[in-house]
Amino acid sequence: GESVGLHLPTLSVQEGDNSIINCAYSNSASDYFIWYKQESGKGPQFIIDIRSNMDKRQGQRVTVLLNKTVKHLSLQIAATQPGDSAVYFCAEKEYGNKLVFGAGTILRVKS
Amino acid sequence: GAVVSQHPSWVICKSGTSVKIECRSLDFQATTMFWYRQFPKQSLMLMATSNEGSKATYEQGVEKDKFLINHASLTLSTLTVTSAHPEDSSFYICSARDPRGDSYNEQFFGPGTRLTVL
User: Judging by beta carbons within 10 Å of its beta carbon (0-12, 13-18, 19+), is residue A19 exposed, middle or buried?
Assistant: First the structure.
């Protein structure tokens, strides 16, 4: 989705609970999506990706769901841990290998 | 795995001076690198695409004369912020495209450079 430059929304979860982070993207022609985790003062770290010919992909403790009908992407983190606290961004791959980042969500894990 | 480094990790400069940031791909050759800017509590915004041996392609609204990009080799791209002003203070992040393999995930990010202009 397009980054709109607003303050990031925050999701607070209790340690051990599941987290769901949502993202709306803008380009219906995008065929590849990525979720990144960014810790304070660091660059984005790849978490999981999904191609547009899939609607679900699972990794270790993470699942990405893609709904092309409503142009919506979600990241599910199972058994959230304090180390998962970070900012999470979705990104869509566009023409020329460019990535367009979504607005981001701050995840805070309470112990 | 593909590793990308940036130097310096942080820099403080006086208003009006120029600052150069380096982005290196350490274990692969990157024909394409990307430069992003990130303001506090905001998302990454693509500034320009840097192609080895040719001129960079700038995104709309990014001043090419202010943000000079040089991709002189397959492992190094530099971003020079010329005549920096306090509003240029930001976190600058590069990524490099590793064309090897058949994965769609080709972009690997550097750790970022924090620029503070006084």
Answer: buried
CA-to-CA distance for A88 and A90, rounded, in angstroms? 7
What would the two tokens of residue B118 be? 């006084």
Interval A55-75 mean pLDDT: 96
Average pLDDT, chain A: 92
| Mean pLDDT of the residues in chain B | 93
Tell me the per-residue pLDDT of A3-45, one tens digit each, with 9 for 90 and over. 444 578 999 999 999 999 999 998 988 999 999 999 999 999 9
SS (H, E, C) chain A: CCCCCCCCCEEEEECCCCEEEEEECCCCCCCEEEEEEECCCCCCEEEEEEECCCCEEECCCEEEEEECCCCEEEEEECCCCHHHCEEEEEEEECHHHCEEECCCEEEEEEC
Q: Does residue B116 have a pLDDT over 80?
A: yes
Is B112–A41 a contact, with Cβ atoms under 8 angstroms apart? yes
Interface of A with B (CB under 8 A): 3, 5-8, 32, 34, 36, 41-46, 49, 51, 89, 93, 96-104
Q: Which two tokens stand for residue B79?
A: 């971003």
Tokens of B24: 């290196």
The band of B102, judged by pLDDT with boundaries at 50, 70 and 90, is: low
CA distance B29 to B90: 27
CB contact at 8 A, A85 and A107: yes
